């Protein structure tokens, strides 16, 4: 039986909702560096909570990338420990497409079933346009590059 | 406390959601129900426009993005409609693989809805997480079953979410015998587990309720199979049509309170699609274990209590496991994974049974293979009028309940239909406004 990868990076979103496709773009760009590394798993999901829990199964370190909407400048990067997810909930439904509730539920469900990884962190990319359509806003596209650089450093640290 | 002499208004705020957004308003004045409005904002309208001018090869991948829960349904209906337009007939072996892929989606979708979205309503929990705390073994069993559904979609469809292996004419590649052998092993457990799930949900306390008399049940029908990939559309009113006749009998119309089009029958009256309708019109074609367990728990084709749809979903899960197991056990790779397809001008219609009900696609294609027009009719918009009327019927007979109990009953009743909005969440921010 093949061992689970040490790190799973999950991208949530819908490329047909413009900036909601930010996470999918992050995964595509990360794949050029990391898809061949057996210690890393890259997974694109839609935010459904059970799929989230099952996608990170076996990994000790999990990053979840998603588009967020908090009023900060477009393309800004937010890093949140899953332990503080409830604080974000209180500020409103910020995530494009409503994934936050799926993510929050996933964390709660995983906790109830003892399926939480050792380290679960969320990387949000501030979006501005969540209408139907394809293509990222220019600032968000730059934010995707920043997120890829950030995650690549984090992956190297974890795997060192 | 009585409520006969004051106005009550229940409102569920709009919910952000990838595959659907919506809300629910129930208004009661002077002790009498005055209005029920289910507000749904659906993405298919955008996709219909987005598809115009694109090649016939693209809808299978693009429409899979409409719904994260049932991408296979969108892919299968799209392929069927485009193949109809282009005069393509797929091989039996390809059709069998499509059935297997569809089984995966039914297992995944039904397992999620039963365990985390609907069971909490019946057992008195606010959500699936609270249910998991007290019924851990049942929830873990359900999630393992869901994972097997995911695995089927991954093996046949190329990946578990938004499958990429589907194309007009078949599949880009066929699964390996090794992967199918592994699936069969998992499905033997799944079949046994699904039978236990039917017995579990059959013990749930069921509200006494029946659909309004005028509701017509509508589902696909196949000569020998329980219909995932059905051929004709039939109804409890005697309808029996092929896909190209759909527009002669059904239409979609705008209503003020929803961006989703409401489905209606041209002859008038509500109609309902989904598990209860499928079972009523096709229970004679269930696989043997599914038929036996349905009989064991007293489910018959005459069932009209929409709350019992959770039992029907469980029986359909048994059926999907049984069919998938037979396909996996008897698998040999097909002679070819797809049939050649040449573009030509034409119009094609197709339909399949998504977990929530019949999903209709229609495409007009030009001589170069570009899409001129697209029409996508999802089950949730078809059911929207019947959900509203079912809720009116239910509330009229439940006005004696206090506000909290009535709200709970309404939410539970909406989830009987597993619409996109409630498959995502346990209705956030529901509140009562007294005026």
Topology:
The complex is a heterodimer of chains A (160) and B (435).
Chain A: E1 7-12, H1 22-34, E2 40-45, H2 49-55, E3 61-68, E4 77-81, H3 85-90, H4 99-112, E5 119-126, H5 138-159
Chain B: E1 8-12, E2 21-29, E3 32-41, H1 44-51, H2 59-62, H3 71-86, H4 92-123, H5 128-134, H6 136-157, E4 166-167, E5 170-171, H7 177-201, E6 216-221, E7 232-235, E8 240-241, H8 246-249, E9 250-255, E10 258-265, E11 271-272, H9 275-282, H10 288-296, H11 309-329, E12 346-354, E13 357-365, E14 371-377, H12 379-396, H13 403-415, H14 420-424, E15 431-434
Parallel strand pairs in B: 6-11
Antiparallel strand pairs in B: 1-2, 1-15, 2-3, 4-5, 6-7, 7-8, 9-10, 12-13, 13-14
Helix pairs in contact in B: 3-4, 4-5, 4-6, 4-11, 4-13, 5-6, 6-7, 7-11, 10-11, 12-13
Write a structural description.
The complex is a heterodimer of chains A (160) and B (435). Chain A has a single domain (7-159), classed as Rossmann fold. Chain A has five helices and five strands, in the order βαβαββααβα. Chain A has helices spanning 22-34, 49-55, 85-90, 99-112, 138-159, and strands at 7-12, 40-45, 61-68, 77-81, 119-126. The longest helix of chain A has 22 residues, at 138-159. In chain B, the strands form five sheets. Chain B has a four-stranded antiparallel beta sheet with strand order 3-2-1-15, covered by helices on one side. Chain B has a four-stranded mixed beta sheet with strand order 8-7-6-11. Chain B is globular, with a radius of gyration of 21 Å. Chain B has a single domain (8-207, 328-434), classed as Cytochrome-c3 Hydrogenase, chain B (Orthogonal Bundle). Classes of the chains: A alpha/beta (160), B alpha+beta (435). Chain B: GO terms for molecular function: ferredoxin hydrogenase activity; nickel cation binding. Chain B: Pfam families: NiFeSe_Hases.
């Amino acid at each position: 039986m093949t061992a689970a990868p040490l790190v799973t990076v999950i991208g949530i979103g819908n490329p047909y909702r413009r900036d909601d496709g930010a996470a999918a773009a992050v995964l595509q760009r990360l794949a050029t560096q990391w898809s061949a590394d057996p210690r890393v798993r890259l997974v694109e999901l839609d935010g459904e909570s059970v799929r989230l829990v099952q996608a990170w199964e076996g990994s000790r370190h999990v990053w979840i990338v998603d588009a967020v909407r908090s009023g900060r400048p477009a393309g800004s990067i937010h890093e949140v420990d899953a332990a503080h997810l409830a604080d974000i909930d209180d500020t409103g439904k910020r995530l494009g497409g409503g994934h936050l509730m799926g993510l929050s539920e996933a964390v709660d469900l995983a906790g109830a079933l003892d399926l939480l990884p050792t380290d679960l962190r969320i990387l949000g990319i501030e979006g501005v346009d969540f209408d139907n359509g394809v293509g990222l806003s220019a600032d968000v596209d730059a934010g995707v590059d920043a997120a890829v650089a950030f995650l690549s450093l984090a992956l190297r640290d974890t795997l060192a | 406390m009585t409520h006969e002499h004051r106005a009550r208004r229940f409102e569920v705020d709009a919910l952000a959601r990838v595959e659907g957004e919506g809300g629910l308003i129930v208004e009661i004045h002077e002790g009498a129900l005055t209005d029920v409005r289910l507000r749904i904002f659906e993405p298919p309208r955008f996709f219909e426009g987005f598809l115009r001018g694109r090649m016939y090869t693209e809808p299978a991948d693009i429409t899979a993005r409409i719904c994260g829960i049932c991408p296979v349904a969108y892919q299968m209906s799209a392929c069927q409609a485009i193949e109809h337009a282009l005069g393509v007939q797929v091989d039996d072996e390809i059709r069998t693989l499509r059935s297997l892929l569809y089984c995966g989606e039914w297992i995944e979708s039904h397992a999620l809805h039963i365990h985390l979205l609907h069971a909490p309503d019946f057992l008195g929990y606010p959500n699936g997480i609270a249910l998991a705390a007290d019924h851990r073994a049942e929830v873990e069993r359900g999630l393992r079953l869901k994972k097997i559904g995911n695995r089927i979609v991954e093996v046949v469809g190329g990946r578990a979410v938004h499958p990429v292996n589907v194309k007009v004419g078949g599949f880009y590649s066929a699964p390996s015998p090794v992967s199918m052998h592994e699936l069969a092993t998992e499905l033997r457990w799944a079949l046994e587990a699904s039978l236990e799930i039917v017995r579990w949900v059959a013990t749930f306390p069921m509200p006494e309720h029946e659909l309004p008399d005028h509701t017509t049940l509508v589902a696909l029908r196949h000569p020998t199979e329980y219909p995932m990939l059905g051929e004709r559309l039939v109804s409890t009113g005697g309808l029996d049509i092929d896909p190209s006749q759909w527009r002669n009998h059904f239409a979609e119309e705008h209503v003020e309170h929803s961006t989703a089009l409401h489905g209606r029958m041209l002859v008038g009256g509500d109609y309902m699609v989904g598990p209860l309708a499928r079972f009523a019109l096709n229970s004679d074609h269930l696989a043997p274990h599914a038929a036996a367990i349905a009989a064991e728990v007293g489910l018959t084709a005459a069932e009209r209590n929409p709350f019992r749809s959770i039992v029907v979903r469980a029986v359909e899960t048994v059926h999907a496991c049984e069919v998938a197991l037979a396909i996996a056990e008897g698998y040999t790779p097909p002679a070819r994974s797809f049939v050649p397809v040449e573009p030509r001008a034409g119009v094609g219609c197709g339909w399949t049974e998504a977990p929530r009900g019949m999903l209709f696609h229609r495409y007009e294609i030009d001589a170069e293979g570009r899409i001129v027009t697209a029409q996508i009719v999802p089950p949730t918009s078809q059911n929207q009028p019947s959900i509203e009327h079912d809720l009116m019927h239910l509330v009229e007979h439940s006005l004696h309940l206090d506000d909290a109990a009535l709200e709970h009953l309404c939410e539970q009743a909406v989830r009987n239909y597993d619409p996109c909005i409630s498959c995502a969440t346990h209705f956030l921010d529901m509140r009562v406004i007294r005026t």
